[in-house]
Amino acid sequence: MNTIVASEGTALELPDVDELAAGNSGTRGVWRFESGQPGPHAVISALMHGNEVCGAVALAPLLREPPRLACGALTLVFCNLDAYAKLEDRNKADCRLLDEDMNRVWGRLDGDRGESGETRELRRARELLPIFESADCLLDLHSMTLPGPALGLVGQAKKTIGFAHELGYPALLVRDAGHEAGRRLIDRPRFVDESAPQLAMLIECGEHFSHASCSVAAEAVRRVIEVHLRRQSVKPVAPQELLEVTGRVTIASPAFRFVKAWGNMELVPQAGTLIAFDGEREVHTPHADAYMVMPSTPRQIKVGTTAVRFARRVA
Fold first, then answer.
1. What was the pLDDT predicted at 180?
2. Is the dihedral angle over the CA atoms 122, 125, 127, 129 positive or is it negative?
3. Residue 234: per-residue pLDDT
4. Which H or E run contains 160?
5. For residue 267, what are the contacts with CB-CB under 8 A and spacing of at least 6?
6. Which residues touch 139 (CB under 8 Å, ≥6 apart)?
7. Cβ–Cβ < 8 Å for 116, 136
8. Are 183 and 140 in contact (CB under 8 A)?
């Protein structure tokens, strides 16, 4: 195992990339476990970004001691293994991707499949797409640059809120439409179509490289297995609350800057508060009591990416 310094300042042991990559299904980094009984196919993905390690830490024990399933099948997918393989303490902020953000390519997989000009993330996504398309329920595990509460990103489909309620986890849910830069895995058509039965939720488990985010990921995994593959009910960890994203700020200028370092999920009480400059353009909060959802840090500022999303609480 590779050991890095966690955000809490203590050691965090990471699973070896070769262990994760071995797989047992014929596809690198993909592990499938069968119950032998009819039931749903639950898929849990980790390492969509190479430095978001909480999912890998949570899933690795299941490779060594496969879970007992009462029905259906469980597939574990370790996505961007090549970015993860580069991860060391000295460069852990730089191992998010190889060529591009893997969680923005999922809308580009249904047309021309030519390899010319494709990125490594796009090729890996093509390899994994049949697995994700076969899922009855999908849990996609991520982490965040800044400290903050775990967030269940439920897209815009009401059925996904029901999925989160079934799991009773996490306590804070965020309804959003994704990013201008590209479609996420949870935004694939089968997961957003209300008439389709397939379910998908992305959980931002907490701060990168934190023991706390690994614990959140492990609890989410446990609940998916209990509810969908053991047919057990689980109690919510806390009363769940729903926030709705009301707008997003897509960076248009390389001179983009926030007026201050905003906290993740910081509440801005007053409508029209100046929060950033996008070149010469002022960016203001669109309404009162606006939550700052996952604001970018200075090193993340890049034209075409999302700087921050605004959200408000839904009754």
1. 87
2. negative
3. 96
4. helix 158-167
5. 289, 290, 291, 292
6. 42, 43, 44, 45, 200, 201, 203, 220, 221, 224
7. no
8. no
Alpha helices in 176-309 (DSSP H): 189-192, 211-224
Interatomic CA distance for residues 72 and 36, integer angstroms: 7
Residue labelled with tokens 């299941």 = 62
Cα 212 to Cα 200: distance, rounded to the nearest angstrom: 23
3-state secondary structure at position 18: helix
Contact, 82 vs 32, CB < 8 A?
no
Q: Are 100 and 122 a contacting pair, CB within 8 Å?
A: yes
> How far apart are alpha carbons 113 and 30 in whole angstroms?
22
Q: How many residues does the chain have?
A: 315
Q: Are 291 and 243 in contact (CB under 8 A)?
A: yes
The two tokens of residue 210 are 């934190």
For the chain, the distance separating the N- and C-terminal CA atoms, rounded to the nearest angstrom, is: 45
Please give the backbone phi and psi of residue 60, each rounded to the nearest 5 degrees, phi first.
-55, -40
Do the beta carbons of residue 188 and residue 160 sit within 8 Å? Answer: no
Integer Cα distance of 226 and 236 in angstroms:
13
- Which DSSP symbol is given to 228? I
Do residues 278 and 249 make contact, with C-beta atoms less than 8 angstroms apart? yes
State whether residue 234 is helix, strand or coil: coil
Residue reference for tokens 């259906």: 72
Across the strands, what pairs with 266? 292
Residues in the chain where the model's pLDDT stays below 50: 114-116
Query: 109-117 long-range CB contacts below 8 Å, 24 or more apart?
Result: none
**Backbone dihedral region of 243: left (phi > 0), alpha (psi from -120 to 50 degrees) or beta?**
beta
How far from 219 is each of 11, 100, 147, CA to CA, in Å?
A: 21, 29, 18
* Dist. CA 148–CA 130, nearest whole Å: 33
pLDDT digit string (tens) for 37-84? Answer: 999 999 999 999 999 999 999 999 999 999 999 999 999 999 999 999
